[in-house]
Specification:
Layout: H1 13-33, E1 39-43, E2 48-51, H2 52-68, E3 73-76, E4 80-82, E5 88-96, H3 98-102, E6 109-116, E7 119-127, E8 132-137, E9 142-144, E10 163-168, H4 177-189, E11 192-195, H5 199-208, E12 213-217, H6 224-233, E13 237-239, E14 259-262, H7 264-280
Parallel strand pairs: 3-5, 10-11, 10-12
Antiparallel strand pairs: 1-2, 3-4, 5-6, 6-7, 7-8, 8-9, 12-14, 13-14
Helix pairs in contact: 1-2, 4-7, 5-6
Length: 281
C-alpha cells in the first residue's frame, strides 16, 4: 500500500542510505553504553524520562542529517523543530524506548523518517540489541538489512486470537476512559496485547509478521510516519478507529493519530472489537 503524491519511487535512495547509516551508527553508540544509561530529566506528568543516551544519540543523527541535507527541516524527539522552511521534514526518534532503557530493559530502537509535507516517503528502524535494520521507501516495499522483503502479518484470524501491540500518546492520562475501554476490550478478546513503551518496535514486529496487529490511541507524532510506512509497504492496512482510511501525520492534534493496523480477517476482527468498546464507553 504505497503512498501516492511523492516525487517518485526512485527519488529517495540517497536519503535511505544516509538514514540507515545514521541509525546503525547510533545503534552502536547505544549498545555500547546501554549499561551506563542514566535519566537526566523527566517529561510529562506520568514520569516519562529522558536519558543521557537520548541526547547523545540525537546529536549524532542530527549531525549526519544536517551535513547531508542542510536545507531540510528536522523534527526530533528532544530537540524539537529545526525549521528551514522546506517541505521535506526528517523525523527523528533517537531512542524509542527510553523508559525501558532507564530500568535496564533491552527493548528499544532508533527511528528515522522523512516526510514530504505530511506524507512519509522513507522510514528506517534499527534495533541495537540485535543489530537488525528495517527500512522502507514509498512504492518500493519494506526490506530488512539482508535485502529480503518484509512479509507483513498473515491475514487469517488465529484461532487463539490475534497478538497485538498497543501504544498511546504521552498526553493520555491513566484515567482516560476511552483508552481504558479499548485496552480492556482488546485484553479480553485477543491472545495478547503488548505494551512495549517503544512504538517503533511494535511497527517493526508488525512489518515482519511477528505480531498480527497494532492499535494506537492518540499516538505520538514523531515516530508514527516512519513506522506506519514500514508496515504499509509490508502490506498492512491502516485504518482509523471507525474503519476509515488512516493517514499517519506528525503534526496537528493527537486526536488525528488513533489507528488500527492489521490485514484481512484480523483487521475486521479488531475493528469490530474496537467499535464495540467505543459504543459501550
Amino acid at each position: 500500500m504505497p503512498y501516492a503524491g511523492t516525487d517518485g519511487p526512485s527519488s529517495f535512495a540517497a536519503e535511505r542510505r544516509v538514514a540507515v547509516a545514521a541509525a546503525e551508527a547510533t545503534g552502536r553508540l547505544l549498545r555500547g553504553h546501554f549499561a551506563d544509561a542514566r535519566a537526566v530529566r523527566t517529561k510529562g506528568a506520568d514520569g516519562d524520562v529522558v536519558t543521557d543516551l537520548d541526547l547523545a544519540a540525537e546529536e549524532l543523527i542530527l549531525g549526519r542529517l544536517r551535513r547531508h541535507f542542510p536545507r531540510d527541516r528536522i523534527l526530533s524527539e528532544e530537540a524539537g523543530l529545526l525549521d528551514t522552511g522546506n517541505r521535506r521534514t526528517w523525523l527523528v526518534d533517537p531512542l524509542d524506548g527510553s523508559n525501558n532503557v532507564a530500568i535496564g530493559l533491552p527493548a528499544y530502537v532508533v527511528g528515522i523518517g522523512l516526510c514530504l509535507g505530511e506524507t512519509p516517503v522513507v522510514g528506517v528502524v534499527h534495533e541495537p540489541v540485535t543489530g537488525r535494520t528495517w527500512h522502507a521507501v514509498t512504492g518500493q516495499g519494506a526490506h530488512g538489512d539482508d535485502g529480503a522483503r518484509l512479509p507483513g502479518p498473515r491475514g487469517d484470524l488465529p484461532g487463539s486470537g490475534p497478538v497485538l501491540a498497543w501504544t498511546q500518546g504521552h498526553a493520555v492520562g491513566r484515567a482516560d476512559a476511552t483508552a481504558t475501554a479499548l485496552r480492556s476490550a482488546l485484553e479480553r478478546r485477543c491472545r495478547r496485547v503488548l505494551q512495549l513503551w517503544a512504538p517503533l518496535l511494535g511497527w517493526s514486529l508488525l512489518a515482519r509478521g511477528t505480531i498480527d496487529g497494532f492499535v494506537g490511541y492518540r499516538a505520538e507524532g514523531v515516530d508514527l510516519p516512519a513506522g506506519a510506512l514500514l508496515a504499509a509497504e509490508a502490506g498492512v492496512e491502516l485504518r482509523t478507529l471507525d474503519g476509515g482510511r488512516f493517514r499517519p501525520c506528525y503534526s496537528g492534534p493527537d486526536t488525528r493519530r488513533s489507528f488500527v493496523a492489521a490485514r484481512a480477517e484480523t483487521l475486521a476482527y479488531v475493528l469490530e472489537e474496537v467499535g464495540a468498546a467505543l459504543r459501550s464507553e
